[in-house]
Amino acid sequence: MDSTRADILIFGSSRANHHYDPRVFENSLRMSCYNNGRDGNFLLYNYAVFKTVIERYTPQIVIFDVDRNELSSTADDYERLSSLLPYKNRNSAVDQTIALRGPYEKVKCLSNIYPYNSLLLTIAIGNTEMNKERKPDIKGYVPISGTWNITSAGIDSNPIRQIANANKVEYLDYSSDTTYLNNHNYFSDPAHLNENGARLFSGTLAAYLQKSEE
Q1: Residue 209 is part of a domain; what is its CATH number?
Q2: Structure pTM?
Q3: Digit-coded pLDDT (tens) for 68-112
């Protein structure tokens, strides 16, 4: 939100975080790339981050990973927006998104310590030896290992296609791509590609983008 000026930005939840390897995009497109994906944070969070970033500069390419499950919401989805609290008063997009957490959110935010209450445990852990075990990210991308032993099934993603078309946003649907669905070795679990799958998927998308730029 504060510093990246990469040519290519990737947004989304855990699938974005684990599926898009910036190194592949940089090698193929000769453009800088940063992965903004964040586990457990969906459309609303990414909207606020995107709006904050484009106040500083305009990236050349924005990739937004989304699936149909993000069109619904639960109480937990709004609770996760607490990660935006330290950015309160940054801009209207952030403030409007934070306000969705509840009717008393504006009052709570009058306290200077409230935005950091939910982060106290994270901060404490970050100052201990436990934090050294955390797997480092690669320009925001966090590869995951392991192999899922069951073939995955495709999903119906027509609701997302309709929204993208209505807003004149290019939509690429890989939800039923047999390259991945027929090879469980590319998955770490039913929803996430492992490092090998992410490298292949990033290459597929980078090749498409390269061809589009020609």
Answers
A1: 3.40.50
A2: 0.84
A3: 777 777 788 888 888 888 888 888 999 999 888 888 777 777 777
Using CA of residue 147, residue 148, residue 153, residue 155, what is the dihedral sign? negative
Residue 123 lies in a domain: yes
| Positive or negative: CA dihedral 55, 60, 65, 68 | positive
Q: Judging by beta carbons within 10 Å of its beta carbon (0-12, 13-18, 19+), is residue 113 exposed, middle or buried? A: exposed
Contact assessment for residue 187 and residue 8, using Cβ atoms and an 8 Å cutoff: no
**Of 202, 214, 213, nearest in space to 60 by CA:** 213
Q: Is 149 a member of any domain?
A: yes
3-class secondary structure, 117: helix
Is 1 among the domain residues? no
Tell me the backbone φ, ψ of residue 182, rounded to 5 degrees.
-90, 5
Residues 118-163: pLDDT tens digits? 555 455 545 555 555 556 889 999 999 988 876 655 565 678 888 8
Structural domain containing residue 32: 8-213
Burial class (CB in 10 A: 0-12, 13-18, 19+), 46: buried
**Residues paired with residue 81 on neighbouring β-strands, in sequence order:** none
Number of domains into which the chain is organized: 1
